[in-house]
Each structure stands twice: as C-alpha cells, then as structure tokens.
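name: query_chain
kind: protein
chains: 1
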Amino acid sequence: MAAMQSSQASSYTAACQAADETIAELNSQRTSTTVQVGDGGTFDYVAKHGAWNNISTRTDRNSKNWNGNYLVQNLPVLSDKQVNDYGNLDDDSVDKYYDNSKLYTINDDENTPQWALTDLVKNQKLSTAQQYEVNQYAMMLTNNYREALGLSPLVSTADFLTLVQQRGNSMLNDTEMHHDGGIIESIFGGHGGWSECLASNDPNWLMGDRKGDPTMIDVLQSVAESINDLFNFDADSKQGHRRILLSESISTATGGWAYQKIASGDWVLNFNGVTEKFSGTNIATVPVQESTSTDNNYEINQKIAAVKTSIADLKAQQNIDYQSAYSAYVDAQQAFYNKIAADDSALIDLPKKIRAYNAQQDAAVQDLIKTLTAQVAQP
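structure:
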C-alpha cells in the first residue's frame, strides 16, 4: 500500500505540474480586458466585433456550445400559421413550439466580459445614450424579423425617438402598465395613424449572481425577451402586437422603442409607430463589423476550469483506486487471519481427536478379544 501511495503521489504531482503549465499558457492567450465601451456603447461594441450569441432558442441550447456572448442578433421567426395554430397544439407539440420559439437568455454573472461592466444602468434609469442603443437594438430585432418574412424595414429617426421617449416618460408615475389613448394621440396624432405595443420585464432578473447595477447586456436581453413574446406569444392579444410590428393591420412606416422603470417598480418597454415616414437620418441601423477580436475571458475560463476538473477527477479516481486496493488488502489480511485461527483451532482439537481415536481403537481391540475368547471357550 505504501508503494501504491508513493506511485499515486508521483503521478498526481506530474499531472499538477502539467496542468499549471497548461493554465499558464491559456492565461497568456487572453485578449485585452481594458476595452472601455462607455455609456451606451454595448450594442455598438457587439455589432462591430461580431460578438453575437449563437444560442437563441432552447433547441440551440441542446445542439450548440455557448460562444461566451450574450446578445442575440435574430429572434426565432415563425409564420402567421405557426403562431395562430399554437392554441390548438397538443402537449408534445407545445413543448416543441417552446423549444423552437421561446428565447433562451443567459444570465449575466461572474463570466460577464469586462467591457460590459463599463456600460451600467445607474439608479435604475437609462441614460440618453442607453435609450438610443435600446432603440437601435430593438429596431434591429424588429427589422430582422420583418426581413425574414419578406417585409420592408421600418425607419426610426432621432426626432421620432424623442417622441417615443416622451411617451415612455409619460408612464413614469403609472402604477400599472396600460395604454392611454389621450396621451398617445397628443404625442403622435399629427403624424397619421398611430400604434402602440407595451411589454413588461425586468433586466435585474438577468443579472444572475452578479451584484450591483445591471449592465446594458441585462437590459438588451430583457428587451429581446419582450419583443420575442410580442412576435411569437401574442395569442392572448389575438396577435394584435404581432400585426402592429409586422404592419399587417396598420401600415407603420416609422417606429421606435423606449424602456423605463415606472412607479409600480416594473420596467415597461413601449413601441410606438406611425404611418408617416419621418424625414431625417435613419438611426435604425447596425454598425458594420470591424473586427472578430473579442474579449475571450469566458472561453479561457472554461478551458482552465476543464483542466482543474481533470486534476480533481484524477485525485478522486486515485482515492477510489486506493480505497479499492486497501479494501482488497484488508479482506486478504482477514482471510489470512481467519486461516491462522482455523489452524490454531485445529491444533487445539487434535489431542482430543487422538485420544478419542485411541479410545475407539482400544474399545475395538477389547471387543475383538472378547469375541476370540468366546470362540475358544466353545467345546
């Protein structure tokens, strides 16, 4: 057993040395973590670096490895027939519907890239720059969905976004989420037909174990969840929100999104659209990808965790092997002790057996003598 312990210790030491070298090599491969995206810079950074999450649905989660990014570029796209059939599906079909259409978001936690921590939501209120990137991201998701169904994109301008944010600010003192036709008419009534979609979520739910202020990753993920529900899970509203966003019943030309926390504590996402096509620069654009270099800390951390797990597994297996060998040793030792005890018992019993045997033989001789004597005595 001592030899086995020595051999295991040598193997474990060698494995640990190799693991340390591997971890050092992995750490040397880290890209810079000093990127400062600044206030309202998350969407711009993700778009320019191509740092999109490759997992958007539950089906993706089961078939793909997470690439370490958090923001989806495209929502799951369903046809009108698919969303209209949802209410008549059996349980198995409903499960499949969810797997392929319910947005899968990944909580912001200790693996959050460092650059994301420089675009935080202070005091639970979006800055002007952050309001701008919410609209930019939400319009991208909206127009990508429309494009997938062969529809033309909506435009969004800075002037129109000001009106949309004005509508959002009108909700700040609300204790419940609701449409207010009077306010909507006062803001958008001069621009043709108007429409509105409202949804509620909370970016703080997406922070995972991380403490402090939510990042704009949390905010944009919650925005994506809400928009996905408006497109793909709108049966309770008879697909009214979906029709607005796809301009099926109202010919929306200009649109915009705003997101704010109201008096009830809920975060409310509002989309407002009008039939008038606003003039001016279209801000519903996505920056062109400039580089594929991104913060790779998540990937490095995962690889290092795998190395550490292999070392822990080796130690655990060595303990199992040692315990098995020790148990076999104890069993063999006990069997040897049992044999010695049995042999000792046999030795102790031997004189008794000899005396019994001798007595048996003496008795047999006496019987024989008696028999012979009797035979001789006969005439």
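note: The CA atoms of residues 42 and 175 lie 30 Å apart.
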